[in-house]
Every structure is written in structure tokens, then in C-alpha cells.
Amino acid sequence: MAVAPDTAADLVYRIFDLQRMVRCVAAASFRGQDTGVALQGVLRYVGEGESRATHLAERLGVSAPVLSRHIADLEEQGYVIRRQDPDDGRAQLVALSPAGAEKLRRIEEHRAVTLQGYLSDWSQEDAEDTARILARLSESLKQSTRATAAGPITIPTP
User: Fold this and answer.
1) Considering the entire predicted model, what is its pTM?
2) Where are the alpha helices (DSSP H) in 30-123?
3) Do 66 and 96 belong to one domain?
4) Does 30 have pLDDT greater than 70?
5) Which domain holds residue 14?
């Protein structure tokens, strides 16, 4: 059964409201840190494994020049390492340095403790259900985004 238009509209509103609140919480809890929210997001994706800068830009939904500035900032702070892609000398591979891996660990630990405090009136079951539903929503959106990016399916006529 398809989602009703009113339900979809309400869900969009709630997702944007959640995004706004997450940004506010992140900004408040990381004031004075050497990495802002944007750089922390880049660290998280780089922390998933070495990859091409262009691939990271696509995943983050930012332009190559924006990502390049973020990577340069993180490299200057000693959190990432860049090297040329051995398969394509024009491309760069980006990975976390040991200091970057430790920084990411501390950021994620801090975020978890902060969220745990905010959700002190939630049950474990509510938190698990929410995590499951958010994961499902994210996966559905990823699949839809990939399908849209791939373009319409055309079936050749004989």
C-alpha cells in the first residue's frame, strides 16, 4: 500500500525538523572544537575506508571544490592523508590518519553520550525501534536516489 499524500507531506516536515534540531544540537555541543560539523561529517565518511575524493563528494552531496577545501583543512590538522590513486594518477585517495581515527572515535563517543542524555526519558525499545525505522527510511531514500540518478529505464524495441 502506498503512503498517502498527507502522510508523505507530514513525514517531509518531520524530517526537515529533525535535520534542523540535529544541526542545532551538534553546533551547541561542539562549540570551540577544532573541527566544525561539516568537517566532522567528512571525517565520518572518510572513516568508512579509503576512497576517491570525487566519490566522497558525491556521497556527501557537495561539490568537488567544497570537499577539496574540507580535505585540505583536515589534512592540515593531521586527520587525513591523501595520496594519488595508483589506478588513475589524476585522482586522489583519501584516508584517515591515526590521529583522524582517534578524533573520529572521540567525536562519535561524545555524540552518543550527548544523545543518550537527551533521550533519558526514552525506553531502550523506543530507541531501537527508532533506529530501525530511520535505517529503513535511509535505505529507501538511497535506493530511490540511485534509481533517479541512473535515469529512466528504456527498453529497446525490436
Assistant:
1) 0.73
2) 37-46, 53-60, 64-76, 98-118
3) yes
4) no
5) 1-31
